Amino acid sequence: MEILKIEGLSKDFFLHEAQREIRSCQDIRFSLDRGQFIGIAGRSGAGKSTILKCINRTYLTSRGRILYESEAFGRIDLASAPEREILYLRKYEIGYVSQFLNVMPRTTAREHVMGALLEMGGSEAEAARDAREMLCYFRLPEELWDLYPSTFSGGERLRLNLARAMVKRPRLLLLDEPTASLDDGSKSLVREMLRSLKSKDTSMIGIFHDLTFMEGVCDRVFNMSEGAFV
Fold it and tell me: Is 196 in contact with 35 (CB distance < 8 Å)?
């Protein structure tokens, strides 16, 4: 069953200081089935992250449609849907993992993960239990849980990002280089968690530079160069 269909997705940026237009991605087309994992590979600057940010509506598309089968709204075009509906989907249905950590000030690591469940309406006790399990799974030392993540290393921050996104078990999960600063042991944990989510019908699109990691996880892989699939 198809959960996402992208038709002619293009994104241009205009650099006002240079009076120049940059074409980031052009005429991207693919579909994603429920429980399927699509990987996107390519050099830095090829336009891979732009695709994920358009799906997540961090960027507004220049052209094209992003058709998503939502539990709450039915088929919806993420490129043109009202902001209210996009905010709902980010909270309840679509997860996004970046290499970079974005945490509210004075929020501890434990609170950051619990917050993902509390905003979905979960109880304090359930959120605390599930957050503990996920923090343990990603081997974040317990002495860090009640500290502010600004003090964490790059790998610790990335594992915290993964914990927050995956604790929600979203229907659609977008992963922007989720293993960029992880050691081999942490990569194995991520791989097993992705396989577990797939088995429970989470659909995923991921960007990876580690081609070995993609083997055995991705169902299909697209190579990208200069804004287009090749």
Answer: no
Cα 53 from Cα 92, distance rounded (Å): 17
Ordered by start, the domain boundaries in the chain are 2-229
Does pTM surpass 0.85? yes
Q: What is the pLDDT of residues 185-216, one digit of tens each?
A: 888 888 898 999 999 999 999 998 777 888 88
**pLDDT greater than 90 at residue 19:** no
The answer to whether 49 and 215 are in contact (CB under 8 A) is no
> pLDDT band at residue 101, thresholds of 50, 70 and 90?
low
Average pLDDT on 122-141 reads 95
Which residue, 80, 13, 20, is CA-closest to 47?
Answer: 13
Residue 68 structure tokens: 């998503």
- Cβ neighbours of residue 183 under 8 Å, at least 6 residues apart? 155
Instruction: Match domain 2-229 to its CATH number in 3.90.480.10, 3.30.70.1560, 3.40.50.300, 3.30.43.10.
Output: 3.40.50.300
Query: In the block, which residue shows the tokens 């009202």?
Result: 82
Q: Which of 142, 121, 124 is nearest to 132 (CA)?
A: 142
